From TrEMBL, chains A, B:
Keywords assigned: DNA-binding
Lineage top rank: taxon: Bacteria
Ranges where the HTH tetR-type domain occurs: 7-67
InterPro entries, per database record: Homeodomain-like_sf, HTH-type_TetR-like_transc_reg, HTH_TetR
Organism (species): Actinotalea lenta
DNA-binding region(s) from the entry: 30-49
Pfam family, one: TetR_N
Family matches, as Gene3D superfamilies: Homeodomain-like (1.10.10.60), Tetracycline Repressor, domain 2 (1.10.357.10)
PROSITE patterns: HTH_TETR_2
Protein name in UniProt: TetR/AcrR family transcriptional regulator
Amino acid sequence: MSELPVGATRRQIIDAAVRLIADHGFSATSVDQIAEAAGVAKGSVYYNFGSKADLFTSILTEGITRLTANLRTALETGPEPTPLERLVTALLRQIRDNPAFAKVVAAEVFRTGRDWQESIGLIHDQAMAVFAEAVGLGDPDLDPLDARVMGSAAFGATLVAGLEWLTYQPDRSPTDVLAAILRMVRRA
Amino acid sequence: MSELPVGATRRQIIDAAVRLIADHGFSATSVDQIAEAAGVAKGSVYYNFGSKADLFTSILTEGITRLTANLRTALETGPEPTPLERLVTALLRQIRDNPAFAKVVAAEVFRTGRDWQESIGLIHDQAMAVFAEAVGLGDPDLDPLDARVMGSAAFGATLVAGLEWLTYQPDRSPTDVLAAILRMVRRA
């Protein structure tokens, strides 16, 4: 593995860790297992990330930061007619491309008592803010607290319906699934 | 604790285990911690439930079975005008009354590679079927697969917005939160 650039090693470790943690949970996944699945030496995991908790914090913060950036781009531009539809579409695409990360987020985002609680809370806040912004756009009278609840409802609808699709109806086309979600998630 | 009836001991163990697992995860929670938090002897946990995995399987199947029964009642009757609104209301009430269980469901329902995967899959199916039925009621032309996706979207919207509320905006009134979710989750 020594011929790989550092960035590629980090990526292999992250991908292996997300897959294992999505299936078995953080505490049931060992650094040995992550190193083996990534095809790197155990020392390489510690060298690149510090502890297992630090690795997982990196995974969550990097992943949600990237997700938030993608959502912000979708908020501004895309083929769907409304900002909210563009966000739902972009989020569903991310879930399909990386279901393991979506499972980990669903598992961790509301836990308390974990080492990475604070950092995920801050980043989660930014992702939810994009959805709240989409809900509030064009409706200056909407209470920001209501926009926040509505935004998290749209986020949750897409997350759960997306994982439901991939776990239980994987043969359905993304277009059909997206259309069904958008029929449900619509401002009254 | 010997004066308590068996049902009460089981309930204490379940409540303590759900709280601990919601905060720290299944693998990071020990039977010692569960027994201590429940105020029972460690042997009592094994006597009532078998292994820690068996305890957690009992928690998930009993909890989702009770949830499904409550949802089915709400589907039939309640003050809200539509079946879907009654389901969202009933689910939000359950999340408020037992947020720890809601967190555990969010964490486990899409995992693979856990001992309780199969039983939670079956029970989850029944809970989602109630939502799909509510979405499909009065619309005989709706594709059942679409109803399923839409139902899981409504379930996910309520779950995530409900946990978001309790975790990040706990001072808001349940009425306001419910109204905001229902503004978002509405058939187009």
